[in-house]
Write a structure and sequence with these properties.
The protein is mostly helical. The chain has a domain of 40 residues. It contains 3 helices and no strands. The longest helix has 8 residues. The mean pLDDT is 81.
């Protein structure tokens, strides 16, 4: 099985070279490892990303980071 390549920006890419998106079932605790302990402050670490996006009215993780995470 071929490994996916990492882009210059270190984001994971799938076999076709497209940057993979975070899945809605990613837990907030996992995202805190990547974005820091203040990511989604006030929300439980076992909350799913899709729930956080719905509650904040964000369309994607990128949108959430842009408007809510500092």
């Amino acid at each position: 099985m071929a490994k996916a390549h990492r882009g210059l920006d270190a984001r994971h890419r799938d076999k076709s070279g497209r940057i993979e998106k975070k899945h809605g079932n990613t837990r907030i605790g996992s995202l805190r490892k990547e974005y820091g302990p203040t990511f989604a402050k006030g929300h439980r670490k076992d909350m799913m990303l899709k729930t956080l996006l719905k509650e904040t009215g964000s369309a994607s993780l990128h949108d959430y980071l842009k408007h809510h995470h500092r």
